[in-house]
Amino acid sequence: MVKTMKGAAMELPLNQIIAGDSIEVMRSLPEASVDLIFADPPYNLQLKADLHRPDNSRVDAVDDEWDQFSSFAAYDTFTREWLAAAKRLLKPHGAIWVIGSYHNVFRLGAELQNQGFWILNDVVWRKSNPMPNFRGKRLTNAHETLIWASKEEASKYTFNYEALKALNEGIQMRSDWVLPICTGHERLKDENGDKAHPTQKPESLLHRVLVGTTNPGDVVLDPFFGTGTTGAVAKMLGREFIGIEREASYRAVAEKRLAKVRKYDSTALEVSRAKRAEPRVPFGQLVERGMLRPGEVLVSQNGKTAKVRADGTLISAEASGSIHQVGAALEGAPSCNGWTYWNFHREGQVVPIDVLRQQIRSEMR
Amino acid sequence: MVKTMKGAAMELPLNQIIAGDSIEVMRSLPEASVDLIFADPPYNLQLKADLHRPDNSRVDAVDDEWDQFSSFAAYDTFTREWLAAAKRLLKPHGAIWVIGSYHNVFRLGAELQNQGFWILNDVVWRKSNPMPNFRGKRLTNAHETLIWASKEEASKYTFNYEALKALNEGIQMRSDWVLPICTGHERLKDENGDKAHPTQKPESLLHRVLVGTTNPGDVVLDPFFGTGTTGAVAKMLGREFIGIEREASYRAVAEKRLAKVRKYDSTALEVSRAKRAEPRVPFGQLVERGMLRPGEVLVSQNGKTAKVRADGTLISAEASGSIHQVGAALEGAPSCNGWTYWNFHREGQVVPIDVLRQQIRSEMR
DNA sequence: TCGTCTTGTGAATCAGTAC
DNA sequence: AGTACTGATTCACAAGACG
């Protein structure tokens, strides 16, 4: 049994690349300490000579059907172990992103569900410039799949709805993202001028993931760090990162890359906020503060009326209660937002009561 | 052990809808007799409370008895059995298509692999008009996933490369297909005027599948026939179909539908054509893609300035919001085209941001 | 007949806080 | 832990009404 430590008991190795095997390193880190995990796991294990069956017997050939099955079993074992280690590291309200192609993503998704992660969306990264299918034997493989899942069904995951909506020019962000693959000067090269990593992900992809599902200061872990795209974007966006990478050559490229990255200034990191994040103002406060008088009549867009009482409730011919309850009752609706439903009269004008709430909120800032 | 018959020994029930349980019926049909299977199995959505739109209308959810499973294990057993029965029916060079959403597709894909099917592509159906996410708690679930797999790795599957290329206006068909959901006159209604089936698939989707992966005269089986989209398109395209459906009401609708279908009806072909329009490019994409940095200052012709934020909004001394909103606020105008209003600095030059949009659009063509 | 406006609806794992 | 209450939240089309 692994001895675990409580979050604060051990210092997290922030903004570093840890050398070693992902599973072992994750097991050594303190549990419930990470806000988000982004993982681009290998799907070609390239371990054919070292492939082991679940019972640890060695697989010596991979060209018959039996071994095809056993290689799936080996991949599933690997997936099960790193996902379990990842889950342990997540805070209760943490979340994970994994990315894969049809070779491995179905096994990833099934195992996420088996372990009790709660899938929030699957996201399609639609590549605007994919490699064509040269032989014309299949469709051009023009996308990869990401899965976004919270630690548990009950997790209150981070989702910056308004920020993603802003990124999409005011329209709700969809589950299909059109982004180019990583090319040009963003693509890191080794000393020979060859690409440093076979599957370097574009920074634009991580930008959208981190803006959408983390807050500044959050801890983001990438257990298959590669050349460090996750770390680079996290650093730019003012998030803390932890990278784990086994290959020294990738670590070297990533270290060099990260040293050059600068954080954006903090006003640029402020993001459009949801109304939910605004402080709650009880309707009764408008009455207490004399913005509305007891006995004053409120009116809805469609002409329904109700009278304000001294305790901040409303009374109409048919119902009494909160602004929401009376609105819902008058409309025969399951619910109603009283703040947007009701209006009052001032100097011949019809004014939404939400204006008064805005006034109180602005005084609070 | 099921006693099996050789292909020719038993007459196939062609161009009929067979009443009964998919698994039992498939087991009763002769092995190695079908060229293609298209399957739209229950998704196991696991919905809980009612969902209302912001206008308080209720979303008509898929809450049918046939979509309820007690656990993932129960769903997996069901999947394993129907896939095994399907595989037995396929000719050696046959193939299968399955469709699902993130609720079930990972389990489908993993079980396909476990049974030795060979995945050829996963295909994303990007819906041009999906239902939005009403609560703003996740991304709009705007796609479904299809998996195309041959019976075995060695199968010489059918792929009509040139036909699909022609459907795509001369460009190699990709693994992401933009098609509208099934609405309007195509959507079948019951005697009350309600939708006859909760999840009717568009004919355009089946048109592309059958044109691309079958030949005229091929036998196409759909074990979850529903209202018979697969049969209708197969008939139009001169393929033979076999439908299996448990629910009498769906069978009745499908029979009526199929009676009206004529071979080579061109309407399905028309709807499957992609609409040509200049693609919308959100300003945020320039930021995600690193063409503009968060914190960078944009400038207007008349010297107004604003700073770019990480979510693709602008912030100036007086206002924050989209490029259009901030432009309008600074000019005191009711509206403003931010694309022509704002410029950025590069190498001593002032460059309109629209240049960057043009660049993205040219990549998309 | 042809625009324009209004209404309806689609495979959906869709809330957070205070008591 | 369970209950009660507040109050936030939608995009693309198609069909029908209206002028």
Outline of the structure:
2 copies of one chain form a homodimer. Chain A is of the alpha/beta class and 365 residues long. Chain A has 12 helices and 14 strands.
Average of pLDDT of chain A: 91
Major sheet strand order of chain A: 1-8-7-2-3-5-4-6
What characteristic shape of chain A results from the CA principal axes? elongated
Number of strands of chain A: 14
Strand content of chain A: 15-25%
What oligomerization state is this entry in? Answer: homodimer
Q: Would you identify the regions of chain A where 5 or more consecutive residues have pLDDT less than 50?
A: 1-8, 59-64
| Overall helicity of chain A | 25-40%
Structural class of chain A: alpha/beta
Terminus-to-terminus distance of chain A: 50 Å
Largest binding interface between chains: A-B, 82 and 71 residues
Largest sheet properties of chain A: 8 strands, mixed
Protein name (chains A, B): Methyltransferase
Enzyme class (chains A, B): transferase
Keywords (chains A, B): DNA replication, DNA-binding, Methyltransferase, S-adenosyl-L-methionine, Transferase
Catalytic activity (chains A, B): a 2'-deoxyadenosine in DNA + S-adenosyl-L-methionine = an N(6)-methyl-2'-deoxyadenosine in DNA + S-adenosyl-L-homocysteine + H(+)
